[in-house]
Amino acid sequence: PLALGLYTVNAVYGDTITMPCRLEVPDGLMFGKWKYEMPNGSPVFIAFRSSTKKNVQYDDVPDYKDRLSLSENYTLSIKNARISDEKRFVCMLVTEDDVSEEPTIVKVFKQPSQPEILHQADFLETEKLQMLGECVARDSYPEGNVTWYRNGRVLQPVEEVVVINLQKIVDKSTGLFTMTSSLQYMPTKEDANAKFSCIVTYYGPSGQKTIQSDPVVFDVHYPTEKVTIQVLTQSSIIKEGDNITLKCSGNGNPPPQEFLFYIPGETEGIRSSDMYVMTDVRRNATGEYKCSLTDRSMMDSTTITVHYLDLQLTPSGEVTKQIGEALPVSCTISSSRNATVFWIKDNIRMQTSPSFSSLQYQDAGNYICETTLQEVEGLKKRKTLKLIVEGKPQIKMTKKTNTNKMSKTIVCHVEGFPKPAVQWTVTGSGSIINKAKETKYVNGKFSSKIVIAPEENVTLTCIAENQLERTVTSLNVSAISIPEYDEPEDRNDDNSEKVNDQAKLIVGIVVGLLLAALVAGVVYWLYVKKSKTASKHVDKDLGNIEENKKLEENNHKSET
């Protein structure tokens, strides 16, 4: 490298400076010397080396004490390079006839420390020019330059928007520079989360280089320009009994901490934090909700619908009716949207709604009318009707001789609710029969049966009694020697009509057979009677034939 056409040595601050003597060693060399030149041009000798005695001498120069080293080839080394070492050094080779000189220029470079952004603003306010911070790079040589960046782009000075001021201070003891660049800046909302940094540009032995600071993000304050209200619930659909939280927010920084909430039915706004909570809401909470800043500027609104479901069952609870009575039943629904209604009887879902024009015992039971609101989870209502159908005891008695003809079965068919108690007695003697068997009590009906083998005619009495009435019915039963076949036992189920039809069919067949037998008997009697008359005529005719034969024989004999 050359400086103004002269040989130059570039050295790093603190390293060793090495300067070769760029002269050819002449014949007859006596000694070599190094000197440097003062700013006024006067020389200062610093090192001497004899070519004959090989000894080295260093001049008493305070700046270079214990820092110099002169080699055999007259190369001069200076340890711990300083900024003050930037001089013009001269190598001198002396003979008896001549003095040769060769100058060398020394340049010293020092890399600055990584720049830092100091005295940072706590926050920035929009539309206000304020000090953002100072970028400081220390101990540089030669002096460097500082550039500010925003999100990686250079910040150019703009009047009243971007104001940059650079100061360079040199340390007189070291000769090193400290660069300080201050930045005044007017931020906007877009500067929120923006990264600010600075870069110092400096020169080193190999040329121009840069060092960048760590980026800094500033909290940018700006006023609220829009207010937003939100409904915070566990479900998007609100129903009666839910809790509702209203949240009001502003888009400023820092965000507003207090708002006015306007509730349906309230004439004045309610001052609150950014949250307003309503618990166990009812249907009258349906309506428009608003919130605004405390100065009543910038308002937002939302509409809330509180879904509800009412069910009215008439009648409900426990209802007691008499058999045969009519009972109108209605399940009325009132809701905020379409509802689904269904009926359950004794834990079984019904296909149609119950309707009672003439109550029967099988109509008794536990009825539930249940409704749910479509698309509203958890909103359902139900009411119950416990229907009791009462009736006085009704009795029908039947009898029949068993197939073994050794006993007779007497049955007392009983209807009524509450279930009647049945007692058998023998009329006349008043004795009570305790060996009766009962069938299962279903839909208000059951049967009590006894088996007897009476030696003579008896009259049996069946007594059925519940809380409503006492009913008594008697039946005459012949002695076991006389077969009896009364009406067949009632079937308390859906097959009763089929049994009756079969019985009618059997009776019809029996009657038909009897009529056929009677007709056959009459025909046979007529046939027999006609046969006897015919026989008499035949006998008479046969007698006349015999007599004719005898007359013919007698006539033949006479002729002979």
TrEMBL record:
- Could you tell me the membrane topology recorded for this protein? Single-pass type I membrane protein
Domain named Ig-like is located at 103-212, 223-305, 324-386, 393-473
- Major location, coarse class? membrane
GO BP term, example: adaptive immune response
Q: SUPFAM superfamilies from the entry?
A: Immunoglobulin (SSF48726)
Spell out where the chain crosses the membrane.
505-527
Location of this chain's protein in the cell = Cell membrane; Cell projection, Axon; Cell projection, Dendrite
Q: Which InterPro entries match?
A: CD80_C2-set, Ig-like_dom, Ig-like_dom_sf, Ig-like_fold, Ig_sub, Ig_V-set, Surface_Rcpt/Adhesion_Mol
Q: Does the keyword Cell membrane apply?
A: yes
- Keywords assigned by UniProt, alphabetized: Adaptive immunity, Cell adhesion, Cell membrane, Cell projection, Disulfide bond, Glycoprotein, Immunity, Immunoglobulin domain, Membrane, Repeat, Transmembrane, Transmembrane helix
Checking CDD domains in the record gives: Ig, IgC1
What are the GO cellular component annotations? axon; dendrite; plasma membrane
> Which PANTHER family does its entry note?
CD166 ANTIGEN, CELL SURFACE GLYCOPROTEIN MUC18-RELATED
Name of the protein this chain belongs to: CD166 antigen
Q: Which organism is it from?
A: Ciccaba nigrolineata
